[in-house]
């Protein structure tokens, strides 16, 4: 029986998705969010992400989104036998 590394298990369990525009199927999707300046770390901390404000750059308008199945490049390489 072939052993399974922790990284293999993670790749199988997380089931990644692509978020795409319901109208054109593109994934150049943006959402509004609030960020707060963190003086100690000298960067913006991302706070709330608003899930009702989806904007598709391809359609150039606000749209609805959907999640579709996405396989990582790593999994595709494994299917082709290019990575153990
Ligand atoms: Zn679109």
Characteristic terms for this protein:
84 residues, alpha+beta, three-stranded antiparallel beta sheet, two-stranded antiparallel ribbon, 19% helix, 43% strand, binds zinc ion
Quick structural overview:
With 84 residues, the chain is α+β, with helices and mostly antiparallel strands.
What does the model show?
- By secondary structure, the chain is α+β, with helices and mostly antiparallel strands.
- It has one domain.
- Helices cover 19% and strands 43% of the residues.
- It contains two helices and five strands, in the order H-E-E-E-E-E-H.
- The strands form two sheets. Strands 2-3-4 form a three-stranded antiparallel β-sheet, with no helix packed on it.
- Strand 3 and strand 4 form a beta hairpin.
- The protein is flat.
- The two termini are 14 Å apart.
- The site of zinc ion has 8 residues, from loops.
Query: What's the total helix number?
Result: 2
Beta-strand content bin: 35-45%
- How many domain regions? 1
How would you spell out the order of helices and strands? HEEEEEH
Largest sheet geometry: 3 strands, antiparallel
Mean pLDDT: 81
Which spans of ≥5 residues are poorly predicted at pLDDT below 50?
Answer: none
Helix percent band: 10-25%
Radius of gyration: 18 Å
Order of strands side by side in the largest beta sheet? 2-3-4
In total, the number of strands is: 5
């Amino acid at each position: 029986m072939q052993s399974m590394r922790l990284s293999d298990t993670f790749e199988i369990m997380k089931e990644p998705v692509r978020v795409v525009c319901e109208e054109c199927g593109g994934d150049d999707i943006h959402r509004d969010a609030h960020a707060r300046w963190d003086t100690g770390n000298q960067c913006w901390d991302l706070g709330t992400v608003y899930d009702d404000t989806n904007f598709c750059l391809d359609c150039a308008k606000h749209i609805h989104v959907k999640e579709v199945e996405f396989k990582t490049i790593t999994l595709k390489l494994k299917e082709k036998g290019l990575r153990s």
